[in-house]
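Q: Hi! First time doing this. I have a protein sequence and I read that you can turn it into a structure. Is that right? Here it is:
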Amino acid sequence: MTQAVILLAGMGSRLGRPHPKSLTPLSSGETILGRQLRLLAAHELHVRGVVGFKLEFIMEAAPELLFAYNPNYDTTNTAKSLLCGLRQIENQDVLWLNGDVVFESGVLDSLLAAQGSVVAVNNARVGEEEVKYRLNADGYIAEISKQVEEPLGEALGINLIRAEHLGEFKAALAEVGDNDYFERAMEVLIERKGNVFKPVDVSEHLCLEVDFDADLERANQLLD
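A: Yes, that's right. Below is the predicted 3D structure, encoded as structure tokens:
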């Protein structure tokens, strides 16, 4: 069974809500997390959440989840949160996602049906704050960060790594800095192994990270 890890430890300061960002209500009546869990359950994924900031709110909202705790959530970034979530997982495929992504079921369909390790992407114009990507000559991810020059689009915060690369990916997550995003560990793995992650273009589906009020408004418009 493919494992799923949702990163829920962050403080979500840019959106400025008094609760964890994943518990932000959507126009559909669900929270961001509630929608994520429903779609992951429909694909029979075994889910755990990595918590930190105001963890009691999340644990109360989703008591059925297994949880991992990042005790340094306020001084570390998503690389270390993901490492916390992966510590108890060995030799399995893992889909991981940020806890602020609003997406459609078709995104999961596309990722789970793909061969190898994959990254959900689009081909939209991207700004300074978005995680961007570039491909190598073989069509694999060559760079993935906020600093990519001449990007092809946005990496959307949902990724799948196959069991064959999981151990080396966990080692890369342990090596990178406390303030690094998990994408830095992906780049370390790429530097060592070459062709690892393929892009999966999900532009036809709703897949949107909610960082600001404008993102939330757009997500709600697309859900209506």
